[in-house]
């Protein structure tokens, strides 16, 4: 950048300092960022972004009057920019006025920001606006006006993935309930806050979270069992007192029959709960067993390969070094995919994943996923063909659709030989569904294996061949996500010829 900016071109000079400033800004080195922004000429094409960034730096450093001046410059622009959100400018102006204790102006701008975000359905920014509006009222002791916005922010935070937003919204609710003297509810929010805080500190502790959830579920069921046991004891005591005071055989017999039936019903409830717990534990135990086996195999393979790397490095056998490095990359990629699928499966099972169905352009999604897999296909010299109809729009959740396509494309690459071909194309759509086909010229499978993969099952499939077949976690995840999107799955395959994965997704019928 320094070399480029030394040339006699004002435009190039501006771009160089702009990119350097943005780099410092992203790393929160604000002093250097300000220095670079100040070197940019006011006639720079993107000077409105310079003003906005300087405003954010001033806001971060507590120079609220300076921040206000910068944000006003941006607000006064008559032109709307495609890469800029007016709601963010309004929100930042509101924060400046809030810190300067100009509450009327702060209220005006925060509400303008929130209204724009509601229209744009920008949930994440809207949560922040609601919390700031609530804080505005709260510091003015207008609790009745503040609390509804704290509650709105809390309920909206349930729909987003950001652990930080969930944590802040929950903490606000805890403080609100403490001030109301509603300590049991405040304690509930505090516990939820601690849970999100733990998630924010280390989102990779999937095993610990799963284990805690398992223990929590067992404790909950145990509490229910204890309650039922206590109820049974109370009923038995009541029955005994009644029997002692009763002198009639008919009353004694009737009471005995009644309590006997109650005991049978209670035992049935306890047995059903125990069976449900056993099924949950069996599923998780099998998952842990399969995945831990695969991870241990991957780590062991890396250890062996690294040992060979050292030997070949010593002997300067560069040909073998290249082979081993590619092998290590493949092992690491497989382990990463396994962990990624495990995290998505855990989120799906605990109903923590964000899910929102909308109109999606199928061809664009496929091209976006393809970009990440080009290097893998080039490594195996695999030809790749896309022929997805440009007119196909589906009604599905974006994240889960990408996970489905990634898993099936990853399998197609894994099962394909050198110089093979992978094709992704559309089949003629029906009245209700669009059909996406992922076809490879790989190993294929027999009919028994095909039927086994399509079975509806809760438990995971154990692998059959360590070199080729995986844990079945990816296939199980795909089937669950397709079912959640109200789609269909079919497989056509022949050993030695290849496999076709046919995914049916609901059409978006209102697309103009």
Automatic annotation (TrEMBL):
Q: Does the keyword Cell membrane apply?
A: yes
Reported EC number(s) for this entry are 2.7.13.3
What's the chief localization of this chain?
membrane
Which protein, by its recorded name, is this? histidine kinase
Catalysed reactions, semicolon-separated: ATP + protein L-histidine = ADP + protein N-phospho-L-histidine
Q: What class of enzyme is it?
A: transferase
Alphabetical list of SUPFAM superfamilies matching this protein: ATPase domain of HSP90 chaperone/DNA topoisomerase II/histidine kinase, Homodimeric domain of signal transducing histidine kinase, TPR-like
